[in-house]
Every structure is written in structure tokens, then in C-alpha cells.
Design goal:
The protein has helices at 74-80, 85-118, 123-151, 154-173, 177-205, 208-236, 254-261, 264-273, 280-285, 289-304, 327-335, 343-358, 364-402, 407-415, 427-430, 437-463, 465-482, 491-516, 519-550, 553-574; strands spanning 6-9, 15-18, 32-33, 49-54, 57-62, 71-72, 242-245, 250-253, 315-316. It is mainly alpha-helical. Among the domains are: 329-354, no CATH class; 359-575, Growth Hormone, Chain: A. A three-stranded antiparallel beta sheet has the order 3-5-4, with no helix packed on it. The protein has a two-stranded antiparallel ribbon with strand order 1-2. It is globular and about 80 Å long.
Amino acid sequence: MRERNNTFVSNNATIIEESTPVTEDSKNVFSISYSKTKDELSNVTNPPTEKKKHHGITHKISMISVTSQQSVDFETAITYTGYGKFNYMLLFIAFPAACSTFFDTSVMSFTLPVTSCDLQLNDFNKGCLNGAIYAGMILSAFLWGFLSDNFGRQRLLVIGYFLDTLCNIGASLSQTFILLLTFKFLSGFVICGPYSIFMAYLSEMFNGKYRDSIIMCSGIFISIGGIILPALAWIIIPQRIHWELFNGAIIINSWRVFILVATLPSFISGILTSFCVESPKFLLAKGRKEEALEVFRTMYSINTGMPSESYPVKRLRDEQGLSTNNENIKTATAAINDEKSNKLLHVLHRAWIQVTVLFRRPYVGHSLIIFGIQFGALMALNNLRLWMPLLFHRIHKGAENLGDSNICDVINLHANTTEVHTGKHSESCNQMRVDSTIYTNMVWVSVLTSVTFVLASYLVRKIGKKKLLIVTYLIGSAAAYAYVWVDTKYTLLISSVFIASMQASTVGILGVTVELFPTDLRAMAVSLTMMFGRFGVLLGSLTMPLFMNMNCWVPFTGIGSIVLGCCISLCILLR
């Protein structure tokens, strides 16, 4: 069930829909174009154009005249603002904003080789630390959606990023496992909102032509963050750092410094977003047309270098309370319109209606398969991704005792070895050194993942996302099965292939989700898809250490079988 509007999906499950700009029939309406598109404003006449240049930004502007009585919709109004310095500033902010979520979800995995000694952690404790942030994300997902819809984007971005900064500072100063676990849970609870809100904010600040590129840039920024984080770990964690504050009440060492440095993207994002304007899309949805018009004027002035008063749009079309196409939701919405004074109840009721529709015919079959695929794929991906630094650490230690061996030999050696520490901050922990090759290996894994992301973006246009998904699942399954057979010196290669292929698949499955559901159910479908995926990560983080200590074959063959099951399920879905 395909529709003509283009839909773009981000890593966190934000949907941005681009509808064809439509204005009222008028011979005096004008259009601004930044491309060679054939069909820009469907009901607008296109008089001869002239080229103008303002501050290095070339515009193709038609001779215009907009009457004060004429109102335009959001897409038309934002197209008139142009593309320039304002948009570049947003892209500048997008880099730390995109890195912040990746840093939050991955930072603990890089510290596990050393925190296990300092905090006396067993493997189950490590799994809890990896999964805590996802537990927080699951619990806060609907809350942030409600807050964003009622209080706007910009204010919540500032609050969210600064709260996340405080949570991560608390984690870096934590002296016990329970305190560290609590702060990581709170960090997940907080960061779930700013990332998804910021992606929605970006989509609402760019016109339809550029949205696809902006979402792609965000994905590339996340990939770059995936390279920066292990590089920081490589620089900081192997250092011998031991500072005692308040007579030894707080001890600062290298892994705590690493967590503190990893808070910088959230802190920088909080500062930068405090200078942003509110989303004009949100303002229009709330009926605040004059405020939205002022935002458009600001964007226009910064982009073109012209006075804001020269912005040609004088009136905006009312977009408050746009109707939905789904009869079930339309009926339910009409039934509770009188309850708008209780906004929370209103939002929860509408969300519940959308959820129940997804589990009824004709959508229930698609819903169950898609949710199951994402549950299994994210469980498989993050089980290995979050445990990979610790796996490389164990391989390095095992090589000293076993020489050439396979992964199972290394894991079995660790399972039969009991580490004993004489105290909370024993001398052995203070002198413990982590081999830097652990983190250089993770840098190479991240580099290959970034290259694969770019390659997948090219291949998806050649062979289609469905065929590409099937290929990535097959490659990921084969790589997982190969873990138990190959020599440890090939672990880096196998790990890179597995992570890269599975990262590409998790984004692609969201694109399939968008195609399977109608417009008014897509946001809820993608949100639930990501929620089931996070459940998978949480469950996998808790069970992975148990299976690894049970038998080496269980986790890797299990992951390979899960990914293969995802591939088979996808084939059934698309037949």
C-alpha cells in the first residue's frame, strides 16, 4: 500500500512526512526553487524567473507578489525561507545531538574491562549496566511524545540535554554498582526524548527537498560518533589515573574520566539548542500562526541576508486539528473532543486507539512479524556490540595463556577462572592496565560500519531495501555462526562484518514498516517497532552473560539462528 508522499525514517524511530506543497489558486503566487524538480507547487503558476545572490547563497526566485489576504500552508512557507546559514547552523547542532544518544547507549560497554575490577562486577552486573539505559528509554518513550506535543520542541531539547548531562556526571562520580546503575537508568529515561524530538525538529526546519539529505546526514553523524567514542576510550582508559577527593570518599580513575568526557555532546547540545527558535510546525499545530510567521521571517532573513519584513508570506493557513484518514481513529477522536481540557487523558486515549488498531485486522499480521523481526535483530546486534570490548579484552588475556585459539577456548578459560580482589579499591585494580588494541579494534569496527552505511545508502537505490535487508540478514547470520569456528585473530573481521550488516538492517526495517502501514498509523507503528527492539536489547543484555558462562556455542549459534529467523520472517512478510 504505497502512497505518493515521501517518508523518511531516522535511527530512533522518528517519521517525517513530506507532502506535496499546495497553495490556493492564484496568478500572483510565487515559488522559490532550489533544484531542477519538475513539480514544485502543484497549483501555482510559474512566471519567468531571475537569479539573485545574497551572501554567497544563490537563489532562483520568480518575480512575485503576494496579497495580504492570501494564506499559504507550512510546506510553501518554509520553502520561501530558502536554504543557507540558518540551515547550516542547524546541521552544526545536529552533530553533537546525534552523538549524544550513541555515546549514552555505548559508553558503559567500553568501561566494562576495568569496571569489573574496580566495582567487583560479575557478568550479570555487567549485563545490567548495558541494559539499564534501554530500560529507561522504554519507560519514557510515550511520556516524551506527550510532552513534545503539548510543550513544544525547543524548550524540551534544552531541558533534556542538560538533564542528561547531570545524569552522566552522576554516573562518572558513582562509587558503587547500584549508584552507577541508577544513573544510567535515569540517563536512558532522559535521553530518549531529546534525540527523537531533535530529529522531528530538524525535519520541521527544512523544506521537503532537503529532508531526505538531512536524515542521511544525521545517520552519518551517528556513524562518526561511533568512531570518536572508541577513539576517546583508546586515549583515556589505558591511562593510569587515580585521584581521591574528600578524603577518599570519591575516587576518580580513567574510566570515570572517560564517562565524564562522553557527556560533552549532551552538554554542548543543551547550550546550542538554547539559542534555537521554536518549531514553526508545532506553532501552527497549536494555532499560534503569528509566532510561526515570525520564525519563518527569522529563517528567511538569516538565509538570504534580506530584512525579515521582505519575507513575502504574510498569512499562514490554519493547520490546527488536521483530520486523519483512518476511520477508527477518526471516530475515537471525535468521541473525546470534549475531553481536551484533560490533555493527558486525551493523548493516552488516542495512543491506545492507535495501538489497538495495529493489533486488529488487516494490520495484525504485519504488526506481529515486524515487531518480532526488530525484537530479534536488535537483540542480536546489541548483544554482540555491547559485549565486544569485553570480548576483545578476554581474547587478549586468553592469547597470553592459550596462544592460537578460537573464541570458545577463550570464553571457557574465563568461565573457569575466578578473579579475586582483596578490597574495593585494591592495589591490583589501581595497577590494572587495559591493552589499547581493544579500543583500536573497536575503531576499525566503527569505520567499517560507517563505510557500510554509505554503501547501503547507494545499494538501496539499486536493488531496493527489501532485497538489501534479506542480504544483510543472511550475512549477519553467517558471521554469527562463524564465531565459534574461526581463530581469534579473525575475530575483528567477523565482528566488523556482523555489526556492519546488522546496523544497516535495523534502519532498513523501519523503511519497510513505513510502507506497510497507512499514514495515520505510521508514527505509532515505528514507535512500537523500536520499543520491541529495545525490549530485545534489554532482555539480551541480561541473558547474554548467563549463556556465555553456560556454553560458548549457545550465545553465538543462538544469535545466528535469531538473525536467520528474522530473514525468513521478512521473506514471509514480503511474499
